Amino acid sequence: MPVRVRADAVTSLENIDSFVTPQLKAQVGEYCVAKILDRTKRGIDFRGTGFAPYGAKYAAWRKIKKGLQTSTPDLFVSGQMLTALTHFDGKFNEVIVGFSDRRQMLKAHGHNYSIPRAQPRRFMGLDERDINNIKTMIVNAIKFGENK
Predict the structure, then answer these.
(1) Which secondary structure element, helix H or strand E, spans residue 141, and what is its range?
(2) What tens digit of pLDDT does each residue of 93-107 get?
(3) CA-CA distances (angstroms) from residue 47 to 62, 79, 139?
(4) Measured between alpha carbons, how far is 93 from 19 in angstroms, rounded to an integer?
(5) Between the CA atoms of 108, 75, 54 and 128, what dihedral angle is there, to the nearest 10 degrees?
(6) What is the per-residue pLDDT for 49?
(7) Contact indicator for 144, 136 with CB cutoff of 8 Å
(8) What is the spatial distance between Cα 109 and Cα 121, in angstroms, rounded to a whole number?
(9) Which of 21, 52, 66, 142 could hold 119 in an S-S bridge, CB 3.0 to 4.6 Å?
């Protein structure tokens, strides 16, 4: 379920590995994490579709027991899952966006694919605009040396 971003997948430059620095990979990873968190907090999946509303029983539990809002699903209860979202250095020119904690990764997997009695809320992913912004980041870093 991790999101993988490869520089050679977004631009067709030869020998791109020599241009992809740790700083550029960190910049791309931070961008990806920020986009995923921003959309999730707004209750929107990576395709731009709003999350399915909370069920009545769960919404009541959120409001009464946790004092949390119930109008827009935001996948936030304790904050542990979304806080564990991070980026890792992948092989060569790859950045991996995933979870630093296995338990939180399993929760995220449930939200994305298999919540019992609920529609999935596919928050892990990047849309076309995100990919285009990453392409621009990579091209600018190579062109203007903004990755040093």
Answers:
(1) helix 128-144
(2) 788 899 999 999 999
(3) 26, 23, 25
(4) 9
(5) -80
(6) 93
(7) no
(8) 10
(9) 52
Which amino acid belongs to residue 101?
A: D
Handedness of CA 74, 75, 80, 83 (dihedral sign): negative
| Residue entry with tokens 């790859």 | 94
- The backbone region for 91, taken as left when phi is positive above 0, alpha when psi lies in -120 to 50, beta otherwise, is beta
Ordered by start, the domain boundaries in the chain are 3-144
For residue 134, give the nearest of 2, 1, 7, 36 by alpha carbon: 7
Long-range contact pairs involving 12-19 (C-beta distance under 8 Å, separation at least 24) = 13/142, 16/93, 16/142, 17/92, 17/93, 19/138, 19/141, 19/142, 19/147
Residues 6+ apart with CB under 8 A from 143: none
The two structure tokens encoding residue 30: 């931070």
Dist. CA 68–CA 35, nearest whole Å: 23
User: pTM value?
Assistant: 0.83
Surface-to-core class of residue 81, CB atoms within 10 Å of its CB (0-12 exposed, 13-18 middle, 19+ buried): buried
